[in-house]
Amino acid sequence: MTTVKRPSGPDSTASDPAHDPKDASAGESRRSNSTAGFDDDPPNSGRRLRIAPDSPFADAAAVFAASDLAQLSALDVSAELFFNEAVEHLHLYNPRPGEPYAHATIAETVRRFQRAAKRPGARRAENSKGKKNRLPNFPRFRLDQTFYNWVHELSQAEDIAEFTTVLGTTTARAYIQITSGMLLVHGLPKFFARCVAGDFTIEHANATAYACRDVKFENLPLIDDYLAERRPDITIETFKKSLGMKIAVLEPLEERVEEASKRRRVDITTARDGTAYLTLTGPAPELQACYIRIAAFAKAIRSGNIAPFSDQVEPGTSIEDDRGIAALMFDILTRTCPQLNIQVTSNNTTTGEISTREIPLDLPDGASLTPADVVNAVNAGLASGVSGSDNADRGNAGRGHTGEYGPASDGETQAEVVLRMPTHGQWLDSQAKMVTTVPFLTLAGECELPGVFSDGSPIPADTARRVAGHSKTWTRMLTDPATGTPVDAKAKTYQIPANVRQTLVAKWRICTIPGCTRRAENTEIDHIIPFDRDHPESGGLTRFGNLHCLCKQHHQAKTDRKYSVRMSRTGVLEYVFRHGITTEVAPGDHPINAAHAKLFDEMRPQDAKSVDPPDPRARSEDQPMHGDIRKARKRPGPKATGEQPGWVKNSSMLSPLAEKNEWIWDSGGPPPF
């Protein structure tokens, strides 16, 4: 790690924010400042706690403190690396080449902008004086900027891939590491110094980084001042709640909710025990309302209250359900089947009358939906006066086109179209595919080996058979009997056939670049050696050993030559990045498929002839080793026949990297299974 001098003054810093945690001058608030009244405390106990020398936690506390310092140093270095990359990509002028890029701190830059806002001519006057010692502002500074957005705006896909390779983590975790480091080192330097001094733990640092990631630059100095004086003798939960209230005072909650709304999303995480976690991230009011609605629905069913469903059930109907509230909420959320309707809110501009109608959009199974179909259905519905529910909010999935549809009897009618998610077969087939790999013997009911989803998470054998039973397409895949990894599929054109794509998805499971977690079925297929359309015989053919999965972003980065990738050996990719980092990526093994191969072997007839492989020690000196390759127009020796060793023509079935006029030595013996 490069150690850089600390800022010479409170308003300046260098682009290398790395600090030596052992440096006694690393922060204004030292451990001794927060241990007043504890004369017998060890010198490295910043938080107000007393540990007896003979306590089993005495040595553990020192280890925990060292761990905190190591993690803080990692955040420091992460911020340093990313900041230097950002300066390079922004092409900022450094008057002192070879030295860190010097710039004003966030706090000083905020003061400059605020002074300029109060006195419009202040900045112009300062610039006209030509101050030689004036440092440039913090790069890409805006008062309303946040470190979350700052990092994401200035990041490059290939640089993040290098972070994930070195950290051995995912892209999302790398972004958290970088954003946290930048925020703590540059946005909250006083608090970071207290963390380094031991006043606060790494848990406090991580909680602060998460809470402040969307705080505007203009408010960070105020939060830093608040944390610089914060008492350390409180629990982590009390600390987080107090910090949250401080942020709420400085920034209107409406703005933070709006920022959260911009990043609303749905994520799924699968566990290895067959369960999964669906995570909805977004504004709290909407998610709270969604939760309360589902809970109310479940409670009504559990209590047998049919009043809310009087328009759906006949009078006298009773509801009896033994499912718990939690199970009912899950079933309601996952089994709701959205319909394809058009909801039209008509506003008669002459009478002011507002009415809401639902117009069914009936399409034959397999037919495609066009904008003209929507417009025609609306016109027909308005003309025929189709009536419907006035519940304007029920089942809305997204807004469509707003405009004028059809003639109105008493003035102009404005119609707002709200389309619900379609459920017809063609749309589901094209949009909601679920790739599942199931062992053949499991399908046949001969074993209970689990199936797996495309991300590698296992599913019970019964569930796998049920899923396969509803599938319209099955694809056979051959796997390595030892590792279970899919080994080959054939393609004769540049376009990727479906069977090759599905085999690649099963082999790699995710985008192959280190750290990326995008599922393989949502990626693009990359030719490792680019396909030469003018001279296909030159290489880059569509064959299994020349293909792998890359998401759109990383595929484009490879096309732009931001990094390189090659097949270093059969089935293993080698990535080379621009900062001298080289790493290999191999497909994961597949223990379920390997166990399946063993079952196949056990099911062979017991009286089948067994042939032991030839003893390599009995091989003559001039006899090739099994798998040796030679290039020749004609066979370089005896032909392999049955159990007799000899030469066979190499092909992509034997080796994904097979070339023309290659021969491979087969030492004889039975196949693996």
TrEMBL record:
Q: Where is the composition biased (Polar residues)?
A: 1-15
Concerning Pfam families, the annotation shows: HNH
Q: Which SMART domains match?
A: HNHc
Using the record's annotation, list all stretches that form the HNH nuclease domain. Answer: 499-556
List every stretch annotated Disordered.
1-52, 385-412, 601-653
Question: Which protein is depicted?
Answer: HNH nuclease domain-containing protein
Q: Which domain of life is it from?
A: Bacteria
Q: Kindly give the InterPro entries that the UniProt entry links to this protein.
A: HNH, HNH_nuc
Q: Where is the composition biased (Basic and acidic residues)?
A: 17-31, 601-630
